[in-house]
Input
Amino acid sequence: MYYQLLLGSTTQATPMLSLNPQTDISNLVNFACHFNTSVNPVTSTVILSYLTTGYETLAPSNTAFAGVISNRAIYNTQVAPTLTTLYAIWRQILSLAKIYSTYGYNGDANICYPVTSGSHSYQVITAITALNNWVDAVNTNPNQILFLGNYLSSEQSSCFNAALANGFPTLSYQSPYIPMWGSVQAGTVFQDVLFGKTQTVTNAAFSKAVSSPPTIAFSSLPVISSLQLWGGEYVNQLIVNYQTSSNPVVMNHTGTDTNTESLSLNLQQGEFFTEISGYSGDFINQLTFITNRGQNTTYPPNPQATPCTFNWTASAGEVLIGFQGTEGDYVNQIQLITVQFCPATWSGQLVVPAAFPIPYPVGQLGLGFNSFLGCALPNTAITLHQSASTKTANQNFSIGLSVGGQSAKYKSSMSIKASNTAVFIVVYANSVYQNVTSSCTASGLTTAAVSLTAQQLYTAYGDSYVSNVTNGAEYWAVFVYDCETESQQQSLQNSFSVSGVVPTEPPVSIGVNFSKSVTSVTQQTHINFRAFQYLKGSS
Output
């Protein structure tokens, strides 16, 4: 999966993505290495960062700003950081609720949407609602000091404290062992779903590359929507239709003898297999499927007799998500791939920082700014004088490796959705051209602004103004590895570490073999890989 975002240019293109990890990693890193050189020049810049200054600095003796100053401090030190944490937790709750809904799991009382009273989900959304109501109240009357402890009700305060104490939810599941059915190991290996935790198998061939099409990552939430079976004396062919979060996928496991009768079995939304049984000898002779909606199907009807039977019944929270096995003249072997969900585990780790939207972007010096809404306003209330540094074109190029979304330490408008078990590699290059600062005369306010009350000034121009902007250009390339488990995440980190790609803070410049190291690790793993590009300011 690949994404690109280009801002500040109509002519400069980011590298074309070929969907080949080796080519794309090399091209993206090379683009960053040559950022703002003769190979890849930058001449059109955008605002990379800015600072704001409160209007009270222009009239220090005016006590009308006292309420705004206190509320801004409460917002910056308490409300905004807490909302960032709570929104990150809430997004993960919604993500887990979607997974639970997809597979019909209802065994986790704390992950629910719509929320139920007393659950962790209820505590989080109650706290978020209370803090947003505080922001609305301050925005309506910024001069009335609203201390957070006095504003929150006893229930809201309890939910506020509990939501932070509970921490962050992580998907918890197990991979039950299910034996391989059938005995002939010769043939083509197939594996429909890449589960994250390695499936225990009795066939050494499963350590080899699997057949086409590529396996489906569990992060794509595959659900079996239908089966087709062909057979006579044995099961000759098995076609499995999966519905994923993005598109349907068909896995066709075909023997050489397909001139037989067939059977189709369609599953409705929310319908899953709860029991599979059958007979096997050298091959799979017969299969019986039972669903939670009462479908009971056996095929083929008259197989070759064999005394060897097998059976699987879903345990509480267990769902069949796919098949793996071998195919030759017939379907030689089958092993079920199941996941057994458990209630989420909660910890204090913040995984994905929330990004607050900016309804009106900062476009120039002097614009009014509302600290409580996090946005610029279209007009200016100050008499502006500018001082600019010379055109320096300072360049920085660095990389960082992190887990669970911590790459968001880099201040960027780019938001990437990923689980707390993901691994990120961030390649960053920027070029700073100008640092421009405003200065103001006497009162500093325009004639129109001077005549306004503090409330009117806030409504029209916010509580502060943009006092400094940095112009330049920057480029990001982010490689995301969607690990399914913490053990898989740790294994991937170890692989990168052995290759010399290690997390550092602050990030360091990379060596000439960086692309080769990342590509080598990527090619050796079956983990779902995504690449993102982001360019601000360009020729």
Observations:
- Confidence is low (pLDDT under 50) at residues 197-211, 349-358, 405-414.
- Residues 173-344 form a domain with the Vitelline Membrane Outer Layer Protein I, subunit A fold (CATH 2.100.10.30).
